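Make up an example, fold above all:
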Amino acid sequence: MHLQIAPPKRVPALDTAFQPIVLWNHSFLQTVSASGQGVPLAIALERSDGSVSVFESRVFAEGHKLAAANLPYAERLVKTLLWQRGGYSVTVGGPRSVGEHIRRAYSPGGIRAFDAAFMGDQVYERPFVVHVGDVDDVPTAREASIPLGRHLDGCRIGFDAGASDRKVAAVVDGRQVFSEELVWDPRNQADPDYHYHHIQAALHHAAAHMPRVDAIGVSAAGIYVANRVMVASLFRGVPRDLFRRSAQDIFLRIKREWGDIPLEVTNDGDVTALAGSMSLGDGRVLGIAMGSDEAGGYVNGEGNITGWLSELAFVPVDLGAQAPTNEWSGDRGCGGEYFSQKAVVRLAPLAKIELDARQAPAEKLKAVQALMALGDERAARIYRTIGCHLGYAVAHYADLYDLRHVLILGRVTSGPGGHLILEEALAVLKAEFPALLDRVTLNLPDESSRRVGQAIAAASLPIAGQAAGGA
């Protein structure tokens, strides 16, 4: 399509075919601007609470020799906005060919049919629809923000439900008095009683270290509405009918069995951002948790969450034809394959590291971390590769969020490998996006915060009332 796209100035050690989406987007927009024939493109996403997000951009006018480039640009942009902000209704205002391309992509049998079904049926429980029109047809933005957490009075339990390990902390007046981290395997379990008993066991272990339990906060991968599980990778092994009967209200059941004390469940990405905001004493924080998958969350300048999904695991970061495919959505080049233990396991053979095929992904990650602790250069190349990917992804995220801080946490960042990730990401920003470094900091919390900080931040989620005994 004759777009002049400069190659990356820093190439990932184990991924020379990497094509950062941020470089393509910037080249596209610069070429549109230079052509003098750019026209507005506006995309609105409506959510079930009535809130509307609007993103404005520019594309080539119909008939321009490069107008074909509008379609991949818009397709990746809509995909990105859906998983960043959420929505069951998308309005595309601009060239008709762009809107019709998006409508076809999100129709049954279209290339984005998974995303349409996921957002419509599973997240918002209503049909997914794409409206095509002019820019004037795009609805007005209606954004909302919600205060989150920061309540540390009394005796609290914070539970972080990762897909490969679970963490729990007992917190008394803001001071951690107990923490525990155990490996579990929720994604491969068909019986939700497995999840129920593991969660309850963790809560009771924490409760034993306090005189009472005033509140419980839960950080968990997935999408939660009023403490109900709408979609969560933790329950991917549970058949859909059984999920609706026994898993969707699992946390409401647990709340009842703990005497109806205050209990709040929030997406782990938002809790990551909350942990960062609490640690930094500032807002405009994007949290990126690298665990079994990539989780994202955002706290705005007022210290509130936005109601956006921030499911960064599904946000495209690589346009390479050989980019890894997500096993769930079938899409290529999305963040979860780059910023998670899946990335470590995928890159290990390329680094000439042989892992035990019988081990779970969390155990494979530990094996690579053990090599990294011994100074193994093969393991170092894995972490440098992830860091290079991250640098370009942070620049991409900065085009989507109003950022002042980016915080990276999660099991993948534990140990010396985390520092290599940070070092390489900063090198990318310095080489490619120096202006971004003037306004955004990239932070790696201390080891304790990286491993259990999520559970402590989760403990701050509920507003505790009068002390009530635990179950």
About this structure: DSSP finds 14 helices and 17 strands in the chain. The first strand starts at residue 38 and ends at 46.
